[in-house]
Every structure is written in structure tokens, then in C-alpha cells.
Amino acid sequence: MKNAPLTVDLNCDMGESFGAYTLGNDEAILAYVTSANIACGFHAGDPAVIRKTVQLALEKNVAIGAHPGLPDLVGFGRREMAISPQEAFDMVVYQIGAISGFVKAAGGALYHVKPHGALYNMAAVNAGLAEAIAEAVYKVCPDTVLYGLAGSELIKAGNKLGLKVANEVFADRTYQLDGTLTSRRLPNAMITNQEEAVRQVVRMVQEGKVLSQQGTEVVIQADTVCIHGDGPHALEFARYIQQVLEKESITIQPPHSR
């Protein structure tokens, strides 16, 4: 009996330009990913950028997702804030609404929700915040997929509510013993060598394991892989990882289509 073919999603954070500031190369990277997480205006993005990014994703037939973050433009949503579960719920409902409006106006569909930055990392370990975010998704768009750090509290909260979830792994980040990402404030948090980053991804998809910074293997489920679109070599890396995954006979498609 043959094993089922391996499948993974490639997602990228997009729409993170704001006003006069341009960040990332969204149009080019859309050719190599299957899901786009579009900033909702809190950590990045603005109405015009959201509209344009939604249209680009639709033209490229890339699944659109909301990418809600903390209200912190200066810190790009990567600084933790002392928010309550109720505040987390309100923020996520508000931001999903922003993306949903533009998607509906363009004749498209919203397929997933993925929290951004500090909100994402906080929800990975804080059950109360995770449950509030999952509840917001469930009450606003229960048919969408909730993206969260593989094995995290957010994934558990989504499963508990009956949402479809996607365990997310990262190509360019290192891991700790508990399966969390190494903080960006610490040394060696980022993997800058693209060959090393892609080897890590292929192993996570094929073997369900990742080597932690402590040298111990961690079991991990890889439903979707995050590619950061704001790095200096983001386009080159997106092209490279797509080529390697296809060479390894790994099918690339968004979670909702499986």
C-alpha cells in the first residue's frame, strides 16, 4: 500500500505597506505561494493597500486570509501588550471585518485567519488569549481555517471549537525544546542560509521533526509553511523553496482545498 502524497501550504504575510511606506514585493511573491495573510491595518496596512493586495491575490488565484495584529504600527505588531481575552476577541473581530469587506467587494472569499507577530506568539502559549481569538474566528467566519503555531494553545483552542486548523511551521526561524519559536531578541533566532532553511522545512514536512536550538529533536506537524516576504532575499527564497518542494514530490496547496 502506497503512502498518501505529502501536501503543504506556502503562506506569506502581505499587504504590510502603509501610506508612503512600501514593504515587501507582494506581486512577485504571489507567484510562488498558495496563501496570502493580509495585514488588517493595526500592525501594518491601510485601506488602499488592503484593496490592492486583495485584488492581486485574486488575480493570482492565491487563498486570502486575514492577518490581525496588535495596534502597534511603530513596533510592527511585534511588541507584547498586556491585553485581556475580551480585548483580543474585539481586535480580531474588528480586523477580520476589515479584510472580509474588501474581499467581498472584490468578489472573492476569505479562506483563513492567521494572527500576526506578538499576538500570534502570545496566543501560542496563553490559553485564555488563544480561546478568545479562536472564538472570534468561530463567530465571524466559522468555515475558515485558523492558522497557528504547530501544537500551540491556539491550535488546541481551534480544535476545541471545531474549527479547521492549520499547524504552521517556519522556514527561517529556529525552535526551542517546547516547540515555540526562538525569540527574535535572542541570538540565532533567524536562519539566514536559504539551503539550511529549506532543509529544515523538508524534514518537518517529510519526517514531522525539527531540531531545537538545544540539540533535541521536537515532533512537529507541518500543514503550512510561513515565508516572510519582507526580507532582502524574500523573492529568491520563495522561488527556491517552491522548486525544492516540487522536486521532493511535495504538493503545494492551501489547507481549505484538501
From TrEMBL:
Parts of the chain that traverse the membrane: none
Signal peptide interval: none
EC nos: 3.5.2.9
Classification via SUPFAM superfamilies: Glycoside hydrolase/deacetylase
Enzymatic reactions: 5-oxo-L-proline + ATP + 2 H2O = L-glutamate + ADP + phosphate + H(+)
Enzyme superclass (EC): hydrolase
Origin: domain of life: Bacteria
Keywords, sorted A to Z: ATP-binding, Hydrolase, Nucleotide-binding
UniProt-listed Gene3D superfamilies: Glycoside hydrolase/deacetylase (3.20.20.370)
InterPro entries referenced in this protein's UniProt entry, alphabetically: Glyco_hydro/deAcase_b/a-brl, LamB/YcsF/PxpA-like
Subunit text: Forms a complex composed of PxpA, PxpB and PxpC.
Family: Belongs to the LamB/PxpA family.
Its job: Catalyzes the cleavage of 5-oxoproline to form L-glutamate coupled to the hydrolysis of ATP to ADP and inorganic phosphate.
Name the UniProt record assigns to this protein: 5-oxoprolinase subunit A
Native source organism of the sequence: Pontibacter ruber
Gene: pxpA
